[in-house]
Amino acid sequence: MPGTPRFLTLADVAETLNTSSAQVYALVRRGDLPAIKIGGRGQWRVEASALEEYIQRLYAETKTFVAEHPFADEAME
């Protein structure tokens, strides 16, 4: 994609996922979302392709969860 940066800041990722930078940092530190640490101040960067793979993995995990935990309308009554 022209104009799309290869690497994203944690703030960029947080905006994409509509969550906080702190939550993204936690994902990175737990190893859930691959990232690299660059520069003397140790700024984190997430490769755009790694973010997309993470999102696709979550879709797959959610699909499995939904299949294993069917929604029961009668539970809502």
Q: Helicity range of the residues? A: 40-55%
Globular, elongated, flat, extended or rod-shaped: what is the shape? elongated
The number of helices is 3
Whole-number total of structural domains: 1
The first-level CATH class name:
Mainly Alpha
The protein's oligomeric status is single chain
**How does the major sheet shape up?**
3 strands, antiparallel
The stretches of 5 or more residues where confidence is low (pLDDT under 50) are none
SSE string: EHHEEH
Mean pLDDT: 92
Q: Widest sheet: strand order?
A: 1-3-2
Q: Could you name the CATH topology?
A: Multidrug-efflux Transporter Regulator, Chain: A, Domain 2
What structural class do you assign from the helix and strand content? alpha+beta
Count of β-strands: 3
